[in-house]
Amino acid sequence: MFTGIVQGTARLLAVDEKTQFRTHVVQLPAELLPGLALGASVAHNGCCLTVTHIEGDRVSFDLIKETLRLTNLGELQPGDVVNIERAAKFSDEIGGHLMSGHIITTAEICKIINSENNREIWFRPQDAAQMKYILHKGYVGIDGISLTVGDVTPTRFCVHLIPETLARTTLGTKKLGQRVNIEIDPQTQAIVDTVERVLAQREGAIMAAASGEFK
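RESULT FIELD:
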């Protein structure tokens, strides 16, 4: 599990490209190396990856077909930078919201509004069906960052970013058209799905009753 509080950024040093498979070698910040071991979970742009090799501060991670399909990690090239978070531990402060590191879709940056000390970024999810889970003042994970949703339309949503978030994460350098990873708040998803299921069952019961009356 993760908290959505990015602990640092890491530069991608090398990519070993194979058929529907990649290995990324990243340079982890020194403060994130203590206790790191093979098999440990580390979120890259919000996507949970497993440590496969450690050589000093050069750490390797494998990306399989499903990861490449659902996330923006397959677009990265050496020199690119990703948001990094080590897995949460019991007793850690949960400053964001609980996140699984399972990316559900990506979103395109479709609008950026800059003002003094603030930035408003609008996102258009690749899978528009996921918009039903994105609610005003709800939570969403964007490239591994726990953020509060601002305005919402049927096809897009925005977040408001403070200077600290812009300085500590990759969102400060993002441009129009770039894709980010999206993780939906699982509690919101469960509530929406449950309500939809109950309403569908109720509608079905009403229609069945009405059909019987007209026989």
